[in-house]
Protein backbone atom coordinates (compact mmCIF):
# COMPACT_ATOMS: atom_id res chain seq x y z
CA UNK A 1 0.00 0.00 0.00
CA UNK A 2 1.15 3.54 -0.61
CA UNK A 3 1.22 6.03 2.23
CA UNK A 4 -2.06 7.77 1.24
CA UNK A 5 -3.78 4.39 1.02
CA UNK A 6 -2.54 3.47 4.47
CA UNK A 7 -3.74 6.79 5.84
CA UNK A 8 -7.13 6.29 4.22
CA UNK A 9 -7.38 2.82 5.74
CA UNK A 10 -6.68 4.17 9.23
CA UNK A 11 -9.21 6.98 8.81
CA UNK A 12 -11.83 4.51 7.59
CA UNK A 13 -11.15 2.22 10.55
CA UNK A 14 -11.35 5.06 13.07
CA UNK A 15 -14.53 6.49 11.65
CA UNK A 16 -16.03 2.99 11.63
CA UNK A 17 -15.13 2.65 15.30
CA UNK A 18 -16.69 6.03 16.03
CA UNK A 19 -19.80 5.12 14.07
CA UNK A 20 -20.27 1.83 15.91
CA UNK A 21 -19.89 3.60 19.24
CA UNK A 22 -21.96 6.59 18.13
CA UNK A 23 -23.49 6.99 21.57
CA UNK A 24 -20.00 8.09 22.68
CA UNK A 25 -19.84 10.73 19.96
CA UNK A 26 -23.31 11.93 20.88
CA UNK A 27 -22.21 12.18 24.50
CA UNK A 28 -19.23 14.24 23.39
CA UNK A 29 -21.40 16.64 21.42
CA UNK A 30 -23.78 16.92 24.37
CA UNK A 31 -20.81 17.62 26.62
CA UNK A 32 -19.74 20.55 24.46
CA UNK A 33 -23.27 21.94 24.51
CA UNK A 34 -23.47 21.59 28.30
CA UNK A 35 -20.14 23.39 28.71
CA UNK A 36 -21.46 26.25 26.57
CA UNK A 37 -24.55 26.48 28.76
CA UNK A 38 -22.37 26.53 31.87
CA UNK A 39 -20.31 29.42 30.54
CA UNK A 40 -23.39 31.52 30.08
CA UNK A 41 -24.62 30.61 33.56
CA UNK A 42 -21.24 31.59 34.99
CA UNK A 43 -21.21 34.93 33.19
CA UNK A 44 -24.86 35.75 33.79
CA UNK A 45 -27.61 36.90 31.46
CA UNK A 46 -25.76 40.00 30.23
CA UNK A 47 -26.38 39.62 26.49
CA UNK A 48 -23.78 42.11 25.23
CA UNK A 49 -21.11 40.45 27.37
CA UNK A 50 -22.13 36.99 26.16
CA UNK A 51 -22.13 38.00 22.49
CA UNK A 52 -18.75 39.67 22.87
CA UNK A 53 -17.12 36.50 24.22
CA UNK A 54 -18.99 33.99 22.08
CA UNK A 55 -15.79 33.00 20.27
CA UNK A 56 -13.96 32.35 23.52
CA UNK A 57 -16.73 30.12 24.90
CA UNK A 58 -16.89 28.17 21.67
CA UNK A 59 -13.18 27.35 21.67
CA UNK A 60 -13.02 26.51 25.35
CA UNK A 61 -15.89 24.09 24.84
CA UNK A 62 -14.07 22.61 21.84
CA UNK A 63 -10.86 22.32 23.82
CA UNK A 64 -12.49 20.62 26.80
CA UNK A 65 -14.42 18.23 24.57
CA UNK A 66 -11.32 17.47 22.50
CA UNK A 67 -9.29 16.06 25.39
CA UNK A 68 -12.05 13.53 26.04
CA UNK A 69 -12.29 12.37 22.44
CA UNK A 70 -8.53 12.39 21.86
CA UNK A 71 -7.83 10.30 24.96
CA UNK A 72 -10.53 7.80 24.00
CA UNK A 73 -9.32 7.45 20.43
CA UNK A 74 -5.85 6.39 21.62
CA UNK A 75 -7.16 4.33 24.52
CA UNK A 76 -8.90 1.88 22.20
CA UNK A 77 -5.63 1.31 20.35
CA UNK A 78 -3.51 0.71 23.42
CA UNK A 79 -5.93 -1.34 25.49
CA UNK A 80 -6.51 -4.03 22.94
CA UNK A 81 -3.01 -4.08 21.50
CA UNK A 82 -4.45 -2.70 18.28
CA UNK A 83 -1.52 -0.32 17.90
CA UNK A 84 0.95 -3.23 17.75
CA UNK A 85 -1.32 -5.03 15.32
CA UNK A 86 -1.40 -1.98 13.05
CA UNK A 87 2.39 -1.70 13.16
CA UNK A 88 2.71 -5.39 12.33
CA UNK A 89 0.17 -5.14 9.50
CA UNK A 90 2.53 -3.41 8.51
CA UNK A 91 1.41 0.18 8.55
CA UNK A 92 4.00 2.93 8.69
CA UNK A 93 3.97 5.00 11.90
CA UNK A 94 3.29 8.31 10.07
CA UNK A 95 0.30 6.68 8.34
CA UNK A 96 -1.15 5.73 11.71
CA UNK A 97 -0.56 9.24 13.02
CA UNK A 98 -2.06 11.08 10.06
CA UNK A 99 -4.95 8.66 9.83
CA UNK A 100 -5.85 9.02 13.48
CA UNK A 101 -5.30 12.78 13.51
CA UNK A 102 -7.58 13.24 10.50
CA UNK A 103 -10.23 11.04 12.07
CA UNK A 104 -9.96 13.09 15.28
CA UNK A 105 -10.26 16.23 13.19
CA UNK A 106 -13.48 14.86 11.70
CA UNK A 107 -14.90 14.18 15.17
CA UNK A 108 -13.93 17.69 16.31
CA UNK A 109 -15.61 19.22 13.29
CA UNK A 110 -18.73 17.23 14.12
CA UNK A 111 -18.62 18.68 17.64
CA UNK A 112 -18.20 22.15 16.12
CA UNK A 113 -21.18 21.54 13.85
CA UNK A 114 -23.39 21.36 16.92
CA UNK A 115 -21.42 23.67 19.21
CA UNK A 116 -21.46 26.65 16.83
CA UNK A 117 -25.28 26.90 16.51
CA UNK A 118 -25.68 26.29 20.25
CA UNK A 119 -23.11 29.01 20.94
CA UNK A 120 -24.86 31.44 18.58
CA UNK A 121 -28.27 30.77 20.12
CA UNK A 122 -27.11 31.03 23.71
CA UNK A 123 -24.96 34.13 23.32
CA UNK A 124 -27.06 35.86 20.69
CA UNK A 125 -24.01 36.53 18.53
CA UNK A 126 -24.43 36.72 14.77
CA UNK A 127 -22.17 35.61 11.94
CA UNK A 128 -20.96 38.33 9.59
CA UNK A 129 -18.52 36.24 7.63
CA UNK A 130 -19.59 32.55 7.41
CA UNK A 131 -16.81 31.59 5.00
CA UNK A 132 -14.06 32.79 7.33
CA UNK A 133 -15.80 31.10 10.26
CA UNK A 134 -15.63 27.78 8.41
CA UNK A 135 -11.94 28.35 7.69
CA UNK A 136 -11.25 29.16 11.35
CA UNK A 137 -13.13 26.07 12.51
CA UNK A 138 -11.19 23.81 10.15
CA UNK A 139 -7.79 25.34 10.96
CA UNK A 140 -8.48 25.64 14.69
CA UNK A 141 -9.74 22.06 14.97
CA UNK A 142 -6.71 20.99 12.93
CA UNK A 143 -4.48 22.80 15.43
CA UNK A 144 -6.03 20.79 18.25
CA UNK A 145 -6.14 17.45 16.41
CA UNK A 146 -2.46 17.02 15.48
CA UNK A 147 -0.75 17.80 18.81
CA UNK A 148 -3.73 16.23 20.58
CA UNK A 149 -3.39 12.89 18.80
CA UNK A 150 0.34 13.03 19.39
CA UNK A 151 0.12 13.68 23.13
CA UNK A 152 -2.72 11.18 23.52
CA UNK A 153 -0.36 8.53 22.14
CA UNK A 154 2.45 9.72 24.38
CA UNK A 155 0.32 9.53 27.53
CA UNK A 156 -1.80 6.50 26.58
CA UNK A 157 0.12 4.16 28.88
CA UNK A 158 0.81 6.61 31.70
CA UNK A 159 -0.99 6.36 35.03
CA UNK A 160 -2.44 9.86 35.33
CA UNK A 161 -3.28 10.22 31.64
CA UNK A 162 -6.70 11.85 32.08
CA UNK A 163 -4.97 14.72 33.82
CA UNK A 164 -1.70 14.68 31.92
CA UNK A 165 -3.15 15.01 28.44
CA UNK A 166 -4.83 18.39 29.03
CA UNK A 167 -1.83 19.55 31.08
CA UNK A 168 0.53 18.82 28.21
CA UNK A 169 -1.83 19.98 25.53
CA UNK A 170 -3.24 23.26 26.82
CA UNK A 171 0.01 25.26 27.18
CA UNK A 172 1.01 24.05 23.73
CA UNK A 173 -2.29 25.15 22.25
CA UNK A 174 -2.09 28.72 23.58
CA UNK A 175 -1.20 30.20 20.16
CA UNK A 176 -3.90 28.18 18.37
CA UNK A 177 -6.46 29.16 21.01
CA UNK A 178 -5.57 32.87 20.81
CA UNK A 179 -5.75 32.89 17.02
CA UNK A 180 -8.94 30.81 16.84
CA UNK A 181 -10.78 32.92 19.39
CA UNK A 182 -9.69 36.19 17.76
CA UNK A 183 -10.58 35.02 14.27
CA UNK A 184 -13.92 33.57 15.40
CA UNK A 185 -14.84 36.82 17.12
CA UNK A 186 -13.92 38.73 13.97
CA UNK A 187 -16.01 36.39 11.83
CA UNK A 188 -18.94 36.84 14.21
CA UNK A 189 -18.86 40.58 14.83
CA UNK A 190 -17.27 41.82 11.63
CA UNK A 191 -13.68 42.50 10.65
CA UNK A 192 -13.47 46.28 10.47
CA UNK A 193 -9.67 46.47 10.64
CA UNK A 194 -8.94 43.64 8.20
CA UNK A 195 -7.13 41.51 10.80
CA UNK A 196 -8.72 38.22 9.84
CA UNK A 197 -6.06 37.16 7.36
CA UNK A 198 -3.17 37.52 9.84
CA UNK A 199 -4.93 35.29 12.40
CA UNK A 200 -5.73 32.72 9.73
CA UNK A 201 -2.10 32.75 8.59
CA UNK A 202 -0.95 32.27 12.19
CA UNK A 203 -3.31 29.29 12.52
CA UNK A 204 -2.13 27.88 9.22
CA UNK A 205 1.52 28.14 10.31
CA UNK A 206 0.69 26.51 13.64
CA UNK A 207 -1.05 23.67 11.80
CA UNK A 208 1.78 23.20 9.32
CA UNK A 209 4.42 23.11 12.08
CA UNK A 210 2.60 20.62 14.28
CA UNK A 211 1.21 18.38 11.57
CA UNK A 212 4.76 17.90 10.27
CA UNK A 213 6.64 17.85 13.62
CA UNK A 214 4.24 15.42 15.30
CA UNK A 215 4.16 13.23 12.19
CA UNK A 216 7.94 13.04 12.22
CA UNK A 217 8.22 12.30 15.96
CA UNK A 218 5.33 9.81 16.10
CA UNK A 219 7.52 6.91 15.11
CA UNK A 220 9.60 7.40 18.26
CA UNK A 221 6.45 7.40 20.38
CA UNK A 222 5.04 4.13 19.07
CA UNK A 223 8.45 2.47 18.91
CA UNK A 224 9.01 2.41 22.65
CA UNK B 1 30.75 5.96 34.77
CA UNK B 2 33.46 5.07 37.24
CA UNK B 3 33.44 6.03 40.89
CA UNK B 4 36.44 8.31 40.34
CA UNK B 5 34.93 10.18 37.42
CA UNK B 6 31.67 10.54 39.35
CA UNK B 7 33.52 12.12 42.29
CA UNK B 8 35.50 14.35 39.95
CA UNK B 9 32.40 15.56 38.12
CA UNK B 10 30.66 16.22 41.42
CA UNK B 11 33.58 18.33 42.61
CA UNK B 12 33.46 20.32 39.39
CA UNK B 13 29.70 20.83 39.77
CA UNK B 14 30.01 21.99 43.36
CA UNK B 15 32.89 24.29 42.45
CA UNK B 16 30.82 25.85 39.67
CA UNK B 17 27.90 26.45 42.05
CA UNK B 18 30.16 28.14 44.60
CA UNK B 19 31.98 30.14 41.93
CA UNK B 20 28.68 31.20 40.36
CA UNK B 21 27.39 32.45 43.71
CA UNK B 22 30.61 34.36 44.38
CA UNK B 23 30.48 36.01 40.96
CA UNK B 24 26.83 36.87 41.53
CA UNK B 25 27.67 38.38 44.91
CA UNK B 26 30.28 40.63 43.27
CA UNK B 27 27.89 41.59 40.48
CA UNK B 28 25.05 42.37 42.86
CA UNK B 29 27.32 44.33 45.19
CA UNK B 30 28.33 46.41 42.21
CA UNK B 31 24.76 46.69 40.94
CA UNK B 32 23.25 47.62 44.31
CA UNK B 33 25.90 49.97 45.71
CA UNK B 34 28.17 51.22 42.92
CA UNK B 35 26.08 51.49 39.77
CA UNK B 36 23.97 54.67 39.40
CA UNK B 37 20.25 54.69 40.13
CA UNK B 38 17.92 54.14 37.23
CA UNK B 39 16.63 57.54 36.11
CA UNK B 40 12.95 56.62 35.67
CA UNK B 41 12.42 53.80 38.14
CA UNK B 42 14.91 54.69 40.88
CA UNK B 43 16.19 51.84 43.03
CA UNK B 44 13.46 49.52 41.78
CA UNK B 45 15.36 49.47 38.49
CA UNK B 46 18.19 47.60 40.14
CA UNK B 47 16.18 44.42 39.71
CA UNK B 48 17.70 44.56 36.22
CA UNK B 49 20.82 42.85 37.58
CA UNK B 50 18.92 39.80 38.71
CA UNK B 51 16.03 39.77 36.28
CA UNK B 52 17.82 39.95 32.94
CA UNK B 53 20.38 37.24 33.85
CA UNK B 54 17.56 35.00 35.05
CA UNK B 55 15.71 35.39 31.76
CA UNK B 56 18.90 34.77 29.83
CA UNK B 57 19.64 31.71 31.95
CA UNK B 58 16.16 30.26 31.51
CA UNK B 59 16.33 30.51 27.72
CA UNK B 60 19.85 29.17 27.43
CA UNK B 61 19.21 26.25 29.81
CA UNK B 62 16.06 25.23 27.95
CA UNK B 63 18.03 25.37 24.74
CA UNK B 64 20.70 23.04 26.15
CA UNK B 65 17.89 20.74 27.32
CA UNK B 66 16.48 20.79 23.79
CA UNK B 67 19.85 19.78 22.35
CA UNK B 68 20.18 17.02 24.96
CA UNK B 69 16.66 15.83 24.06
CA UNK B 70 17.65 15.51 20.41
CA UNK B 71 20.70 13.58 21.63
CA UNK B 72 18.40 11.20 23.52
CA UNK B 73 16.31 10.46 20.46
CA UNK B 74 19.38 10.17 18.28
CA UNK B 75 21.55 7.92 20.44
CA UNK B 76 19.28 6.65 23.22
CA UNK B 77 22.15 7.11 25.67
CA UNK B 78 21.45 7.49 29.37
CA UNK B 79 23.65 10.56 29.79
CA UNK B 80 21.49 12.55 27.35
CA UNK B 81 18.32 11.46 29.10
CA UNK B 82 19.70 12.49 32.49
CA UNK B 83 20.96 15.84 31.23
CA UNK B 84 17.70 16.65 29.42
CA UNK B 85 15.92 16.37 32.76
CA UNK B 86 18.60 18.32 34.56
CA UNK B 87 18.60 21.25 32.14
CA UNK B 88 14.85 21.41 31.82
CA UNK B 89 14.60 21.38 35.60
CA UNK B 90 17.11 24.20 36.06
CA UNK B 91 15.40 26.12 33.25
CA UNK B 92 12.01 25.72 34.91
CA UNK B 93 13.45 26.91 38.21
CA UNK B 94 14.79 30.00 36.44
CA UNK B 95 11.44 30.65 34.74
CA UNK B 96 9.59 30.45 38.06
CA UNK B 97 12.08 32.85 39.62
CA UNK B 98 11.67 35.09 36.60
CA UNK B 99 7.92 35.26 37.07
CA UNK B 100 8.25 36.03 40.78
CA UNK B 101 10.87 38.75 40.19
CA UNK B 102 8.81 40.20 37.37
CA UNK B 103 5.73 40.47 39.56
CA UNK B 104 7.70 42.11 42.36
CA UNK B 105 9.09 44.63 39.86
CA UNK B 106 5.79 45.21 38.05
CA UNK B 107 3.86 46.10 41.21
CA UNK B 108 5.66 49.41 41.98
CA UNK B 109 6.43 50.18 38.33
CA UNK B 110 3.26 49.34 36.44
CA UNK B 111 0.98 49.27 39.50
CA UNK B 112 -0.04 45.68 38.91
CA UNK B 113 1.30 42.20 39.63
CA UNK B 114 0.47 40.92 36.20
CA UNK B 115 -0.12 42.20 32.68
CA UNK B 116 -0.50 40.32 29.42
CA UNK B 117 2.80 41.54 28.05
CA UNK B 118 4.17 39.06 25.46
CA UNK B 119 7.33 38.34 27.43
CA UNK B 120 5.40 37.78 30.65
CA UNK B 121 2.81 35.58 29.05
CA UNK B 122 5.43 33.59 27.18
CA UNK B 123 7.35 33.01 30.43
CA UNK B 124 4.20 31.76 32.13
CA UNK B 125 3.45 29.39 29.23
CA UNK B 126 7.11 28.27 29.33
CA UNK B 127 6.94 27.46 33.04
CA UNK B 128 3.77 25.46 32.46
CA UNK B 129 5.01 23.59 29.37
CA UNK B 130 8.31 22.51 30.84
CA UNK B 131 6.92 21.91 34.33
CA UNK B 132 4.52 19.39 32.82
CA UNK B 133 7.41 17.68 31.01
CA UNK B 134 9.01 17.03 34.40
CA UNK B 135 5.69 15.80 35.76
CA UNK B 136 5.24 13.47 32.79
CA UNK B 137 8.67 12.04 33.46
CA UNK B 138 7.83 11.23 37.06
CA UNK B 139 4.70 9.33 36.07
CA UNK B 140 6.33 6.88 33.65
CA UNK B 141 7.97 3.80 35.17
CA UNK B 142 9.45 2.08 32.18
CA UNK B 143 12.90 3.54 31.40
CA UNK B 144 12.83 3.46 27.59
CA UNK B 145 9.41 4.97 27.32
CA UNK B 146 10.29 7.59 29.93
CA UNK B 147 13.41 8.84 28.17
CA UNK B 148 11.52 8.98 24.86
CA UNK B 149 8.58 10.86 26.37
CA UNK B 150 10.85 13.36 28.13
CA UNK B 151 12.83 14.03 24.96
CA UNK B 152 9.83 14.33 22.68
CA UNK B 153 7.88 16.58 25.04
CA UNK B 154 10.96 18.79 25.54
CA UNK B 155 11.41 19.19 21.80
CA UNK B 156 7.76 20.08 21.22
CA UNK B 157 7.75 22.55 24.14
CA UNK B 158 10.88 24.28 22.79
CA UNK B 159 9.52 24.54 19.26
CA UNK B 160 6.44 26.20 20.71
CA UNK B 161 8.37 29.06 22.37
CA UNK B 162 8.66 31.41 19.35
CA UNK B 163 5.11 30.63 18.24
CA UNK B 164 3.70 31.53 21.65
CA UNK B 165 5.71 34.75 21.74
CA UNK B 166 4.60 35.83 18.28
CA UNK B 167 0.95 35.03 18.86
CA UNK B 168 0.78 36.77 22.24
CA UNK B 169 2.51 39.79 20.75
CA UNK B 170 -0.13 40.06 18.03
CA UNK B 171 -2.97 39.31 20.40
CA UNK B 172 -1.85 41.95 22.85
CA UNK B 173 -0.76 44.65 20.41
CA UNK B 174 -4.40 45.13 19.51
CA UNK B 175 -5.16 46.13 23.10
CA UNK B 176 -2.25 48.19 24.34
CA UNK B 177 1.16 49.25 23.10
CA UNK B 178 4.01 47.03 24.15
CA UNK B 179 6.36 48.42 26.78
CA UNK B 180 9.63 49.35 25.15
CA UNK B 181 12.84 47.64 26.06
CA UNK B 182 14.99 49.98 28.16
CA UNK B 183 18.35 50.68 26.64
CA UNK B 184 21.15 50.01 29.04
CA UNK B 185 23.75 52.61 29.91
CA UNK B 186 27.42 51.66 30.24
CA UNK B 187 27.83 51.97 34.07
CA UNK B 188 24.99 49.44 34.37
CA UNK B 189 26.42 47.19 31.68
CA UNK B 190 29.35 45.82 33.71
CA UNK B 191 27.43 44.54 36.77
CA UNK B 192 24.84 43.08 34.41
CA UNK B 193 27.51 41.13 32.58
CA UNK B 194 28.99 39.91 35.86
CA UNK B 195 25.67 38.71 37.27
CA UNK B 196 24.85 37.05 33.94
CA UNK B 197 28.11 35.17 34.13
CA UNK B 198 27.30 34.23 37.72
CA UNK B 199 23.86 32.87 36.84
CA UNK B 200 25.32 30.92 33.92
CA UNK B 201 28.01 29.35 36.11
CA UNK B 202 25.48 28.58 38.84
CA UNK B 203 23.12 27.00 36.29
CA UNK B 204 25.86 24.86 34.76
CA UNK B 205 26.91 23.74 38.24
CA UNK B 206 23.35 22.89 39.31
CA UNK B 207 22.63 21.05 36.07
CA UNK B 208 25.87 19.08 36.40
CA UNK B 209 24.96 17.98 39.91
CA UNK B 210 21.39 17.22 38.87
CA UNK B 211 22.62 15.15 35.91
CA UNK B 212 24.76 13.10 38.27
CA UNK B 213 21.80 12.47 40.58
CA UNK B 214 19.57 11.46 37.69
CA UNK B 215 22.27 9.27 36.22
CA UNK B 216 22.79 7.40 39.49
CA UNK B 217 19.03 7.02 39.82
CA UNK B 218 18.80 5.51 36.34
CA UNK B 219 21.72 3.17 37.04
CA UNK B 220 20.24 2.08 40.36
CA UNK B 221 16.94 1.43 38.65
CA UNK B 222 18.63 -0.76 36.07
CA UNK B 223 20.59 -2.66 38.70
CA UNK B 224 17.55 -3.36 40.85
CA UNK B 225 15.99 -6.79 40.34
CA UNK B 226 12.76 -6.88 38.35
CA UNK B 227 9.74 -7.41 40.53
CA UNK B 228 7.33 -10.06 39.31
CA UNK B 229 4.25 -8.54 37.70
CA UNK B 230 1.02 -8.70 39.64
CA UNK B 231 -1.57 -11.05 38.23
CA UNK B 232 -4.39 -9.22 36.48
CA UNK B 233 -6.92 -9.87 39.19
CA UNK B 234 -4.82 -8.16 41.82
CA UNK B 235 -3.78 -5.22 39.70
CA UNK B 236 -5.37 -1.88 40.24
CA UNK B 237 -6.49 -1.36 36.67
CA UNK B 238 -10.05 -2.21 35.88
CA UNK B 239 -10.34 -5.51 33.94
CA UNK B 240 -11.42 -3.84 30.71
CA UNK B 241 -8.37 -1.58 30.84
CA UNK B 242 -5.76 -4.32 30.93
CA UNK B 243 -4.43 -5.21 27.49
What does this structure look like?
The complex is a heterodimer of chains A (224) and B (243). Chain A has 10 helices and no strands. In chain A, α4 (54-79) packs across α9 (174-189), α6 crosses α7 (130-155) and α7 (130-155) runs antiparallel to α9. Chain A has helices spanning 3-20, 22-43, 47-52, 54-79, 82-88, 93-123, 130-155, 161-172, 174-189, 196-223. Chain A is globular. With 224 residues, chain A is mainly α. The longest helix of chain A has 31 residues, at 93-123. Chain A has one domain. Chain B has 243 residues and is mainly α. Chain B has one domain (8-176, 185-215): Four Helix Bundle (Hemerythrin (Met), subunit A). Helix content of chain B is 76%, strand content 0%. Chain B contains 6 helices and no strands. In chain B, 40% of the residues are buried. Residues 174-181 of chain B have low confidence and may be disordered.
What are the defining features of this structure?
heterodimer, A: about 220 residues, mainly alpha, 10 helices, B: about 240 residues, Four Helix Bundle (Hemerythrin (Met), subunit A), 6 helices
Number of domains of chain A: 1
Unreliable residue runs of chain B: 174-181
Oligomeric category: heterodimer
What's the total count of β strands of chain A?
0
CATH class term of chain B: Mainly Alpha
Strand content of chain B: under 5%
Biggest sheet architecture of chain A: none
Count of all domains of chain B? 1
Largest interface: A-B, 37 and 35 residues
Q: What is the general shape of chain B?
A: globular
Radius of gyration of chain B: 21 Å
User: Outline of chain A, from the CA principal axes?
Assistant: globular
Can you lay out the helices and strands and say which pair or pack?
The complex is a heterodimer of chains A (224) and B (243).
Chain A: H1 3-20, H2 22-43, H3 47-52, H4 54-79, H5 82-88, H6 93-123, H7 130-155, H8 161-172, H9 174-189, H10 196-223
Chain B: H1 3-34, H2 48-75, H3 78-110, H4 118-139, H5 143-173, H6 186-223
Helix pairs in contact in B: 1-6, 2-3, 2-5, 2-6, 3-4, 3-5, 3-6, 4-5
Amino acid sequence: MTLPQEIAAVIAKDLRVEWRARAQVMALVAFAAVVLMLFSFAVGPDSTMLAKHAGGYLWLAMLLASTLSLARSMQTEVETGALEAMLLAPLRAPAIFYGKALANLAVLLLVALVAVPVDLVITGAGVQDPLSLLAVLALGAGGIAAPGTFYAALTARVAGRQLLLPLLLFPLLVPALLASVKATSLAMSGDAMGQMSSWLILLLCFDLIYWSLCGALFEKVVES
Amino acid sequence: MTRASYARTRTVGLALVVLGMLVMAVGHGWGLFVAPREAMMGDVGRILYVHVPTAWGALVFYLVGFVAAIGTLWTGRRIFDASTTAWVEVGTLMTMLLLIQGSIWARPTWGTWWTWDPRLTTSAVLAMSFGVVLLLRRLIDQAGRRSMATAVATIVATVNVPIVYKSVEWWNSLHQPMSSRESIDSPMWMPLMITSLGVTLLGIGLATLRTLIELSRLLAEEAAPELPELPDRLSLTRPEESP
